[in-house]
Amino acid sequence: MHLKKFIITHFRNYEYQSLEFAPRLNLVVGLNGMGKTNLLDAVYYLCMGKSRFSGNDRNVRRNGADFFRLEGYFQKNGGAQKVVAKVVPGQLKQLEIDGKAHNRLSDHVGHFPVVFKAPDDTALALEGSEERRRFVDNTLCQLDARYLTELMAYNRLLQRRNAALKQMAEQRQWDQTLLQVYDEKMKVPAEYILQCRQAFVRNFEPVFNRQFTVISGGREEVQLKYKSQLQDTGFISLMEANREKDRVLQRTTGGIHKDDLEFLLNGMPLKRFASQGQLKSFVLALKLAQYELLKQQKKVKPILLLDDLFDKLDDERVNHLIRLLVEGDFGQVFITDTHPEKAEAIARNFGGEYRKFVVEAGKVAVMGEELRN
User: Which residue from 64, 26, 62, 65 is spatially nearest to 43, judged by alpha carbons?
Assistant: First the structure.
C-alpha cells in the first residue's frame, strides 16, 4: 500500500499543494518551522481522521481559512482508492473513500494503517500513563473497529460520570443509584478494552524485543509490563470499592482509564535510568514493532512516517537504524530531517525509486524543481 498523489488545501501552514510520492522512500528536508512535520501530519490525518498532534480541528486549519481539505490517491492490493477529508471545524467533518462517506470514525480508521514516529514520542517513557494508553489505543483502533467503538463509548460515559460527581458535590446531593447506572453501562466497554489490551501486550512484546535488539546492537535488554486495576478484581467491584473516594475527589478514580505500561531497561525503570540515545532507541523500537504488528494482522504494509529521525542518536545507533530500514520489509516510508545527509545515506542503499522534497514556508519543491504551490 502507498499514497501515490496527495492534495492539501488550507492545512496548517499549507495553502495549497499537490504532490506525487514515491512508492517506497520519500525524503522531506528543510529548516525547522518550515512545514516538514505538517506534511506528515496531513498524511496521518487522511489515514486516521484526526491530527497526530491536536484533538481540535481548529488547530490544524490554516490561519484565516474556514475549512481544510485533504485528498489522497492510494494504491492498495492492486487497486486504486480515492480518500477525501472535508472539514469545517465545529460544523462538518466528512471522510470519504471512493465517494462513500463514513458516518463514524470507526468506519474509516484501519483502512489505511499508519505509524507516526515523532520527536515528542519520548513522552511515552517520560510522561504519565495517558501517553502509553494512547499508544496502545492507536494500534488497537487500527486493528479492531469494535475496540474504537467501545473506547469512545467508555470515554463518553466516563465524562458524564465525572460531571455527575461534580454536580452532586456542588448541590450536596449524593445519588448512588445514578452512579450504579453509569457503572453498569461502562462495564461491557471496560471489559472488552481490558481483554484487547492484555492480548495486545502478549503479542506485542516479542516483536518489540526483536526490533530493539537490532537498533541497540543487542547491548541492552528491555521488558514491558501491563498494569490494570481490573487484573485483580471485576469492574463493578472496583467501582463500588472506590465510590467514597470518587465522592471526595469528584472524579472517577478507578477503571481502564488508569491502565499503564511499565517500561524496563536492563531490569530498571526506563524513565529513571535511560540516556537520551537509549530513550530514542526504545521509542523507535516501539514504533517499528507497532508497524510490524499492524503489517502482520492487516496483511498490508502500513505507511511509516519518521519525523526528525536521527536527532540525539549516536553514530553507532544511526548505523544500526539505517541497516534496519534498508534491510527491513517496509512499504512506503517518509523521513524528515533538517540535515539531509543521513537520510540520503538511507536513500543510496534503499533500492528502488525515491523522491526528495524540500520544504520552505509551507511550499514544497521536488528536488530539481522550483518551489511551487
Answer: 26
Start-to-end C-alpha separation, the chain: 26
Which of 226-230, 289-293, 362-366 has the least mean pLDDT? 362-366
Task: Give which of 348, 372, 369 is closest to 361, Cα–Cα.
Answer: 372
Beta strand 114-117 with 303-306: parallel, antiparallel or unpaired? Answer: parallel
State which amino acid sits at residue 145: A
- Cβ neighbours of residue 90 closer than 8 Å, sequence gap 6 or more: 57, 58
Cβ-contact 316, 218 below 8 angstroms: no
- CATH number for 126-297: choose from 1.10.10.10, 1.20.1050.90, 3.40.50.2300, 3.40.50.720: 1.20.1050.90
Say which amino acid occupies 101: A
Other C-beta atoms closer than 10 Å to the C-beta of 372 total: 12
Q: What is the pLDDT of residues 207-228, one digit of tens each?
A: 999 989 888 877 888 999 999 9
**CATH dotted code for 1-113+300-373:** 3.40.50.300
Spatial distance between the Cα atoms of 352 and 77, rounded to a whole number of angstroms: 19
Cα–Cα distances (Å) from 51 to 7, 11, 44, 136, 221, in that order, read 16, 10, 7, 17, 33
